[in-house]
């Protein structure tokens, strides 16, 4: 049997293939000469599965899609302070090659426009690295995002350098504001090498999936950049990634995205997947015509819009039951699923609203697959308050999803691997044992 | 026992109370005379629980916070086409009172700046409604979002009208472009009444929670606007809600938000909660100084940032087990949790990668609390393909979480309420019966 | 015999009449319905002679051509300080209906754009005048420039008011910046009445001639505004009169000018003449197509360009001769023409370079028709220095072209009506004849 | 005896010397290290007399003052078409180092901003000249304007090149728009050599005087550029020479001018004189503080403002008298002074209004020192019409101020050197004396 996802992708490509509007980028022969009929799309899940259709193995230059990744590298290599001091995060409402510098400081408005991207390139690698080493660092970094060794298309790179007047203009302007502090030509050269890295739609989907997967490449398992960096990069892609069409994209597609002039387009959906399309004909904003159509289709068909409100997790509290009686009575609260603030709040509320009468309280998180920090703290604070109210509290946590379970001053909790380890429960009715036995089977 | 959430809010207020920087809005006496020391914060969950601390019952004027809600009403009353034809969705990178119209058309760039907000106001209610009825419609709508009857502060409204020169200028400019097609004074007057609606921080939290809850007021259960409208409104809040500080907010706070000049500030976290703060001293952007601090604190403490990638739902497939043997063999796949594309993909992949050898396949969704449309379709397509491969397929769905379970041409599925209804399984080991019995208890 | 100037004008009109490009202004019916084929041109000299050809007696509305005259009235009525505090003098490089206000202050960039013109209108008449009286003042003032009583076209005015959304927008914006301090509607109404004043091409030529004639109407002899005001108005017309085509006009035509949307166009050439044309079809800048052609022709045919360097007045010193001998010797310096700095300098230089040996020095200005203030001062200072060097100095000035001939401390001069009144010269009848006969030698 | 002009200049310098506000340019050490107390001023008349006070022999770099002169050279070397195709003439309202390019074409708005000045530099010399030869051409040209061989300050030039990031940025931007079509670095280098030419205030005054003298250096008598070029250059100086203070300068000073960052400032008053000042401390616009004060003083003291309307030449017609009687009767019209359109018009009008009854008409221009082309044509047309009316016409023109005196078809004129050569008049000796004695009556 075959998965319907490739079929879906095939169908999507079929639906857009007839649209031959737009044109390949014309400013250098290498791009102008690209086969305009190429068409491909790929999904990469955050556990590394890749689905593709069409030309997903054809190499083309990454161009501006390198910008968010180089930004991630710069943030990672130099830290937030030095990078934010030189490149802002505000949407410019302008085309990619506008200068868009802040009035007084000359700081580029964001890292997605060329001025910001060149500055970002100059901030990759260790401070003081020479241009060649810096390029090496960037190619290494992009390769790490992709999960395979990438290389530069030297012909495109040489041609770009010949037509780099506008970028040289911008770089000299940045130098005049001391946003760049070195020879602008070296920065432009390095930046154009970065843009000339060859990728396939498959590579791009994997690079996007690395962002969607909190910075860890799903295939290699290697952490490329930290989570805080990923959050910053995705935020900037969401507001500045599509240049002067940012608002249209945000409302209609709603996925942090980035396009490149060679026809690539990526989207990264946090916690879910990376998407890439490839089709070289561009619209007036410089975005791939069929790529934009595909993304609109994907978001509509698949409910990927960031503001598509998911149904609430109503069932965080799987069960809330009393067992035993009198002095032996135990209150057992079983939680499940992934717990974030909204879920933790409901759990806490349930306990507050119906305070346990039983002397012992068991919080069973063995079916919780994740709990974020605020929820962990709320849970532990609840434990502390239960202790202060005179309860003995047990935490069933066989996989240690609640790290460092210290409820703080006045609180106390006994962590056990199995509910059977809670004293009295052990002797209880077999129903629970059976239940537990059943549960173990299910896991 | 007391919930720790009010304690948390109290603590947060304590931490910011000392910051008396900024100043109340000075352009009308009513705002200038506001008590600058007021401070309050409220959370409203999407099932209607409100937590508050400080001045959450003090009334103040809603001001620009009315903008996203009026935008929602206009989209709802007139449809997307007519509204988008007159108001864009692009960030302006400019302050709230900039004119920011598109060059040729005079279309305001977005509904969060005054030009866009006045145009939006003019698009509420039925086409052709007189100004007074339109105002009534807006107040009704805001009241529906809040879940209680709101009223206008007539003194503030009168004072606003006296100082409305800039808004009148903008409205006349819109009239000259035929974006407005009626007397501009009536629109300005109605818009200022909209801005003069009195709310409390509690109201605002509930209004934001209505957005977070897909347009349904958590308390009244009444649908105020549709889901597509909510998605549009939240998208625009995310990119345009904080004016010229949009990028800073998007990276540092990451919650769709809107501020008002009387000191209110709201944030709506899709599927989770609504947040509101109230503190009248404003910073240079016109945002509440302590409100911004509180939101930064909330997002950091509580992991609310939109791009904070949640841990993946690894356990969508709760179990995948064979039962019985030979001709009686059944493959039982039990799903759990909320299923969106990424989860559905994993389930599908599991089936594809390990195709069931058994003639009968049971897909048990009784522990699934939600499934979105794409996942439903993937599930049904999988069913169809299983049928085509010769399997008999059963769907255990007692709560009908999979609506309209038609697998399409060539597919066939038997929907049952309980796994016991699947023929052969019935005779199986009692363990399962017990498990099921236990499960029912847990629900 | 007939003057060739009307013939010239007729010929010029014939040459442009075939050009029917452009279109009448379309924003109100009264202008749209104007006969587009009307064509007229008029010259008015600074002593009141008017030459006309074509439709010079047809009335049309003055529109923006009222702006420089109202600016003159405001400067005259309120003084430079209060007017410059509210309206700047910088070219905006923008179209007439752009708002073009200074960032912080809201001050309109110049009085030729609508924002500046409305502010200027509000500054005419005495401070505190009501709108109706102010309009009366402006119509009186425009009439004084034209030399006949002008009146308002009520139909056009009413129609303008109906389509005044953009002007109302601008006026409210000015009110919000407190550049206007009264009800904006009253200012717009008054301004539109000002624009609706009916004039003919003959009127406009006379109005321009009044500016060219230092503010005195050539026909009535009445001073309408002061010379300093005229200098300011002409300067602003030169840099801001033609909106976004200011540089083209300055280089190609080089005459301070102003156009109106009803088809009028004026130019004022300081000290020479006023020019007006009338042809209702407008180009993309809002200037009369055939009017612009006519002005280009006039400046080229007639050498009217401000930067057309006139041949220098080489013969300021008409003769420099000694008469008599020994103790009776007299040095006679005869000046001629109009004397400005450059001429005075040459005279002074001649005396310095060849200091008179004679005890008496006669400066004869009886053939000088004008002398400006700096030249007067230089002449008197020369007299003073001659006195200090021991000379007796006589000034022959029968028409008192050198007012207040006081050479200052240590200087002394005897003013006489005729050279014969200089003591010793008296007896020398005939010598003068010789001198005159010898004029060719002096040259 | 000493001229009062140097005294005046000394006095003017004394009045401003105390003002030590502003600061020397800081962007390169050579300028920063300039002696800020230097102060000088010079006037150069159009016949080559130079008056100076203070530091008029101190050399400094010409900087932006080279711009109008290089523009003149480009217009002269390449013609108007090619230069206007690449550099506009519109005021930018922006500072000197703004990019200020037209949106679509990338054409710099005017030649006084750096973008326009570098483009202008690239258009000097013959098309295709190499950068070094072009620089030689520019230095030759500037030297011709100054009347002495100028040289480059190599130290300043080298330092400028090190700090040329912004100019390099602009030049690369121009290259990207193909406004420049060669290596931008060569253009910037050449432009900076142009700016590094050493001049004194005396040189600058002479350069300005060359413009004021229609393009002929007053000392060398050599024509540097043509009159049409001078008109264009002065027009652009008038509207764009003082950057964002253009309107203030136009109204308050009213002299076409240009400033340089080393402290120089020039003004050229067509037909009168060139002015230069030198004082290195600059104001916020980059103009010399004391230089601006001096020019304000000069224009006010000396009536140099372009819009300062001079008293009209009322006496163009010196006398209009009949002589002889009956068949011998002659009408003698004596003209005087410099005749431009306004004067010619008065003469023509006098003849038209009082048509001569005498068969012979004598037009005596022996006391006319100049007549422009339009006036010449009007005079000859009058002659033609007089002929057609049956008159014999004589022109007394001993110095041939009326070139090519052909009255055209049907006209006839006899040119004589002296009125005595007119047949009948010859016998009337003495009549002329009477006429002269009666001159006062004619006025």
From TrEMBL, chains A, B, C, D:
Q: Where is the STAS domain?
A: 328-402
Query: What InterPro entries does the entry give?
Result: Beta-lactam/transpept-like, Glutaminase, STAS_dom, STAS_dom_sf
Q: Per UniProt, which keywords does this protein have?
A: Acetylation, Hydrolase
Entry's transmembrane regions: none
Its EC number(s): 3.5.1.2
Q: So what does this thing catalyse? A: L-glutamine + H2O = L-glutamate + NH4(+)
Can you tell me which residues bind substrate? 64, 114, 160, 167, 191, 243, 261
Q: Which Pfam families match?
A: Glutaminase, STAS
Output the Gene Ontology terms for molecular function. glutaminase activity
> Broadest EC class?
hydrolase
Q: Which domain of life is it from?
A: Bacteria
- Family affiliation: Belongs to the glutaminase family.
Q: How does it assemble?
A: Homotetramer.
Q: What is this protein called?
A: Glutaminase
Q: Which organism is it from?
A: Isoptericola halotolerans
């Amino acid at each position: 049997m075959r998965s319907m996802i490739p079929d879906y992708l095939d169908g999507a490509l079929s639906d857009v293939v007839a649209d031959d509007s737009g044109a390949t980028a014309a400013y250098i022969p290498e791009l102008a000469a690209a086969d305009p009929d190429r068409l491909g799309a790929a999904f990469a899940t955050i556990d590394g599965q890749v689905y593709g259709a069409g030309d997903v193995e054809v190499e083309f230059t990454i161009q501006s899609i390198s910008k968010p990744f180089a930004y991630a590298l710069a943030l990672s290599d130099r830290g937030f302070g030095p990078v934010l001091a030189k490149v802002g995060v505000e949407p410019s409402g302008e085309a990619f090659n506008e200068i868009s510098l802040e009035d007084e400081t000359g700081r580029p408005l964001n890292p997605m426009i060329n001025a910001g991207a060149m500055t970002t390139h100059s901030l990759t690698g260790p401070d003081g690295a020479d241009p060649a080493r810096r390029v090496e660092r960037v190619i290494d970094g992009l390769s790490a995002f992709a999960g395979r060794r990438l290389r530069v298309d030297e012909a495109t790179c040489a041609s770009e350098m010949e037509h780099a007047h506008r970028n040289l203009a911008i770089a000299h302007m940045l130098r005049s504001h001391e946003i760049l502090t070195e020879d602008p030509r070296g920065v432009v050269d390095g930046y154009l090498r970065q843009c000339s890295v060859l990728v396939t739609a498959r590579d791009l989907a994997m690079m996007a999936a690395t962002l969607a997967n909190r910075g860890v490449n799903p295939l290699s398992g290697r952490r490329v950049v930290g989570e805080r960096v990923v959050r910053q990069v995705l935020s900037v892609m969401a507001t500045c990634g599509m240049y002067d069409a940012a608002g249209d994209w945000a409302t209609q597609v709603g996925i942090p995205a980035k396009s490149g002039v060679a026809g690539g387009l990526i989207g990264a959906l946090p916690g879910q997947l990376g998407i890439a399309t490839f089709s070289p004909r561009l619209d007036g904003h410089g975005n791939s015509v069929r790529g934009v159509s595909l993304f609109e289709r994907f978001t509509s068909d698949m409910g990927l819009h960031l503001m598509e409100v998911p149904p609430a997790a109503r069932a965080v509290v799987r069960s809330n039951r009393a067992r035993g009686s009198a002095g032996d009575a135990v209150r057992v609260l079983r939680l499940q699923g992934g717990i974030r603030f909204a879920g933790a709040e409901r759990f806490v509320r349930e306990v507050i609203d119906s305070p346990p009468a039983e002397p012992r309280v068991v919080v069973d998180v063995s079916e919780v697959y994740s709990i974020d920090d605020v929820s962990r703290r709320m849970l532990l604070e609840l434990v502390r308050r239960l202790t202060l109210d005179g309860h003995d509290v047990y935490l069933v946590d066989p996989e240690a999803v609640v790290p460092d379970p210290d409820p703080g001053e006045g609180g106390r909790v006994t962590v056990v691997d199995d509910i059977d380890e809670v004293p009295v429960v052990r002797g209880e009715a077999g129903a629970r044992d059976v239940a537990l036995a059943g549960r173990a089977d299910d896991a």
